[in-house]
Design brief:
Blueprint: H1 5-53, E1 57-62, E2 67-70, H2 72-77, H3 82-85, H4 90-93, H5 97-108, E3 115-121, E4 132-142, E5 148-157, H6 159-173
Length: about 170
């Protein structure tokens, strides 16, 4: 039996309402995801701005001791090119055993008691600068589930302080 034209109109209107409902729900989801993405991007930009404006060097190391992130100060202090260093094992990019030991201790450290040491970075033989002294701290980094995912290292350049102490000692000795 053939359906009347009125029945087809009712069926089409019902289908249109369902399509409109699905379309509206899709639009709402898209807006929600867009808003979330914008919030994440805004947060990332804020964090990047804070890290890049810091005087202290900050570097993030993963569980396999590969460099995953560093700010401009850390790159400057460690004489690294971020484009070449990120993703590589720490022992390949920084030839300083004390820093490597510190990272290991930082991963094993208590969250409230970071590992600390003073590093002496010796320049290459052809460099005109002398030794650089850094106060370094390392602490574990955990994900939202509390699982350790690596370590964060904070470096503070104390070269000038050490040189002033040396001048003072020499002055007092004479």
């Amino acid at each position: 039996a053939l359906l009347g034209a009125g029945v087809w109109v009712v069926v089409l209107r019902s289908a249109n309402r369902r399509l409109l409902t699905l379309y509206t729900a899709g639009q709402d989801r898209h807006k929600n995801l867009s808003d979330r993405y914008a919030a994440v991007e805004r947060r990332r930009s804020e964090l990047e701005a804070v890290l890049s404006s810091m005087v202290e060097g900050v570097a993030a190391i993963d569980r396999e001791e590969r460099l995953i992130s560093l700010n401009h100060a850390a790159a400057r202090l460690l004489l690294l090119d971020p484009a070449d260093a990120i993703g590589r094992p720490l022992h390949e990019i920084v030839r300083n055993v004390s820093l490597q030991v510190l990272v290991g201790e930082g991963m094993a450290a208590n969250d409230n008691d970071p590992a600390q040491t003073e590093l002496v970075l010796r320049p290459s033989p052809d460099s005109v600068t002398g030794d650089r002294f850094l106060q370094a701290q390392a602490a574990p980094v955990r994900d939202t589930g509390g699982n350790q995912v690596g370590a964060v290292v904070v470096l503070h350049d104390i070269t000038r302080l050490r040189r002033l102490e040396s001048v003072r000692r020499d002055f007092v000795a004479n």
